[in-house]
Each structure stands twice: as structure tokens, then as C-alpha cells.
Amino acid sequence: MRRRIWRIGLIVSLLAAAGLAQEKSGGEGESSSLEMWKWANFLVLAGAIGYFVGKGAPPFFASRSREIRKEIIEAEEARKEAEARAADVDKRLASLEAEIAALRSEAHEEARAESQRLAQHTAAEMAKIQMHGEQEIAAAGKTARLELKRYAADLAVGLAEQKIRTRITPAVQDSLVRGFVRDLK
User: Fold this and answer.
1) How confident is the model at residue 4 (pLDDT cuts 50, 70, 90)?
2) pLDDT score for 19
3) What is the mean pLDDT of residues 106-134?
4) Collapsed DSSP state (helix, strand, coil) of residue 68
């Protein structure tokens, strides 16, 4: 970097010396002197621009180069990740048909098991209903027999009462009351 500055300074001083020498020698006049100063100004300006560009460019390009390398590495990682995802998706798609078949088989098996369970549950409920019905019938039969016995007893008592009323006259009744009173004493 210092070498450049020295080179630029050397070139500028040589041009300035050449311009001064030509002026003293009485060259072509004022127009050539003005033109030399223009060239000298241009070289000084170009040298200053070169110096500042030379001073700031290497760090800029170095940092830009690091950023580009970093972005290339990130892009490579993203590409690898995308390829891995694509491979995973391809693998899933390849096994998707087998998974669907397994799910269908599992669903059929579950449906069959549920149907069997429902059939067993229905059979058990029917057995309970039949047993309950038989118990109801037995209870109704027992109740009917009890009512029939009660009715028969009521009829028998009624018939007996009717027979007794027809056989007992007021005289027989008086003799029964007297006998009862005698037994009480």
C-alpha cells in the first residue's frame, strides 16, 4: 500500500517538474502550461481517488467475499436440507400405499371385531330379556293362582254363609247363643 502511495507521489512530482521545466523554457505558451496543469490536477485527483479506493476496497472486498462464502455455505446447507426433505417425502410416498393397505386392513379387523362384540352384546341382552320375561310370566302366574285361590276361598265362604243362613232359623240361633253364654260362665 505504501509503495503505491510513493509511486503516485513520484509520478505527480515528475509531472509537476516537467510542467515547470517547460514553462521556464518558454514552450508553446500559456495554453500548453494550462493543459499541463490540467493533467497534473487529473493525476492528483486520480491518485487521491486511487488512494482512497485502495485504502477502503480491500476490507470491503474481503468482507463481501466472507459474506458471499457464508451465503454459499448457507445455500448449500439449505439445498442439502431440501434434498433430505424431498427424500423423506419420496420415502413416505413410496410407503404410503402400504400404509393405506395396513390402515384398511386394520379398519376391516376393527369393524369385524365391533360387529362380533355387538352380536355378543345383543345375544346377552336377548337372554336377559327372555329370562326377565320368563320371570314376569312366572310371577304373573303365581299372582293369578293366588288371586284364583282367594276368589275360590271367597266363593266357598260365601256359599258356606249362604248355606248357614238358610239352615239357621231364629230358633236355632237362639239355642246357639244360649249355649255360648252357658259356656262362658
Assistant:
1) low
2) 60
3) 92
4) helix
Alpha-carbon distance of 159 to 96, in angstroms, equals 92
* Alpha-helix runs per DSSP H in the chain: 2-25, 30-167, 170-184
Region label for 168, one of left (φ > 0), alpha (ψ between -120 and 50) or beta (otherwise): beta
Q: What is the pLDDT of residues 131-185, one digit of tens each?
A: 999 999 999 899 999 999 999 989 889 988 888 878 888 887 888 888 888 888 7
Rounded to the nearest 10 degrees, what angle do helices 2-25 and 30-167 cross at?
Answer: 150
pLDDT at 122: 92
Place of cell 282367594: 150
Which residue has 246357639 as its cell numbers?
176
- Rg of the chain over Cα atoms, rounded to whole angstroms, equals 66
Query: 36 is written with which cell numbers?
Result: 499541463
Can you tell me the distance from the alpha carbon of 96 to that of 102, in angstroms, rounded to the nearest whole number? 10
Domain ranges (residues) in the chain: 2-169
pLDDT (0 to 100) of residue 24: 53
Contact 33, 23 (CB under 8 A): yes
Cβ contact 1:52 at 8 Å: no
Separation CA 48–CA 54 (nearest Å): 9
Distance in angstroms (rounded) separating the CA atoms of residues 89 and 4: 59
